Amino acid sequence: MITDSEALFQWKLRAAGQPQGRVVLDLEADSLHRHREKLCLIQYADADGVVIIDPLAIEDMSLFTLWLQEAEVWMHGADYDMSLLQNAYGVLPKMILDTQIAARLLGFQQFGLAALVEHYYGIALSKKNQRANWGLRPMPDDMKEYAQGDVKYMLEMADKLVAELKQLGRYEWFIESCACNLAHGRERHQNSGQNPWRIKGSGKLNRRGLAALRALWTWRDGEAASIDRPAFMVAGNDELIRWSTALQEFRPVHPNRNMHNHRALRFRKAVERFQLMDEEDYPELQKRVRHETDAQFDDRVDYWASRRNAVAEELALDPSLIATRSQVEAIASNEEKGLSGLMSWQRNLLVTQNPGA
Question: Residue 350 to residues 18, 304, 309, 356: CA-CA distances in angstroms?
């Protein structure tokens, strides 16, 4: 376990000598235990074995970040890890090859890391420390062992996945999908600071409901910060939406029965501040993408959805991999523009594939 700059330098020499695309990364954070999550552990693997890097113990991680920006790495389900890396260091790898994307393009129904390890090796990964506090120091041996398990099989497993992708003629799909996912990860990070209170379910609220949600989200965030615990330990997102919906409809809301008196008082004050707001200060509704429609729009949606589903069935893939519902509607609205929004392999399948032929 690397805990100082000298050991990190020796690791950098080792990592820099590896061929591109022949290393694995995984990350652990304390998101279930702190108000503002932090990156707590970096698991690295190559052909020579596993290394665990402790970023909490190393003041200057620039050796890692400089290497990272030039590296092509394997990860599994990298979306969350991309967010961690960008929040911690502001950088991402040159390329992320994602074993989850590979598995989905091969038609796996269960594509979690544990499911893949069991499929290829017959080994059941322990789930004991999935919700562990990775900021805990000194780190218990069982947590170190768990952390190694997340990367120790991945490089060999990646070779198996790549071989199967090439056999099916889907390797180019995989590379394009990984590049697209990396670009989306950068875009999500750029937009992540904008209105974080617009949580799932907020799209159903009107301006008054959004004002209530913003007030209650701000109250919850302050409570979570005061105890340095995740926001869901104060109130869940579903509760915020339920309270906001009630306030939108001019119905009373009440703190939960298990909420202690001081927090309940601050909750009521947050509601009062919302109720004193002028309507002109309510948030604006987000502009939704509205597709141009005509009398034949629904018929075109059905046509393209049916075509997509037939191609997916023939290839034994999840239809949403070929085109999501939103993408299907975009194609039905404006065929040329909608198809241009797809990856090239998706577009080729939809346009040139002849299902059932």
Answer: 39, 8, 10, 13
